Amino acid sequence: MSSRIENQALPDADPLNPAPIHLDHELSRENVDALGDSASAGKPLFNSMFTLALLVGMSVPESTHGTTVANLGFSEVLFPRPVYPGDTLRAETEVLDRRESRSRPTQGIVTFRHVAYNQRGEVVCTATRQALMKRRP
């Protein structure tokens, strides 16, 4: 199973993270060369933890809505390209593995691979997630 969600536009700022790299346009212009990313045009970076949460959240309606019991953990979380306010993201999710739970006969453990792309088709976030899921009756 895989799912694909299109076009989630990002807000201009993250009020929950006051770090200058997320809010200060002047600092961001200074960092353009350091990041080697001409697409930024000196914009502050979007918070990477919010990017990860958005990636997983975008996958829920198409893949796990109403069936997730608990998230068990994440591995291999990468942010290969920066994300900026105003970017538009799309997400793809693939099931890598699934197995029955040894201790919960009505549930199973599923391993997902989530990938987020920006409007230029560049990968901006990847994550592998394990979740405890309801099994079909």
Automatic annotation (TrEMBL):
UniProt xrefs under InterPro entries: HotDog_dom_sf, MaoC-like_dom, MCH/BMMD
Which residue ranges have biased composition labelled Low complexity? 9-20
* Top-rank taxon, per record: Eukaryota
Q: Where is this region: Disordered?
A: 1-21
User: Which Gene3D superfamilies does its entry note?
Assistant: Hotdog Thioesterase
In what residue span(s) does the MaoC-like domain sit?
A: 20-111
What is the name of this protein?
MaoC-like domain-containing protein
To which species is this protein native?
A: Stephanodiscus triporus
List the top taxonomic levels of the source.
Eukaryota, Sar, Stramenopiles, Ochrophyta, Bacillariophyta
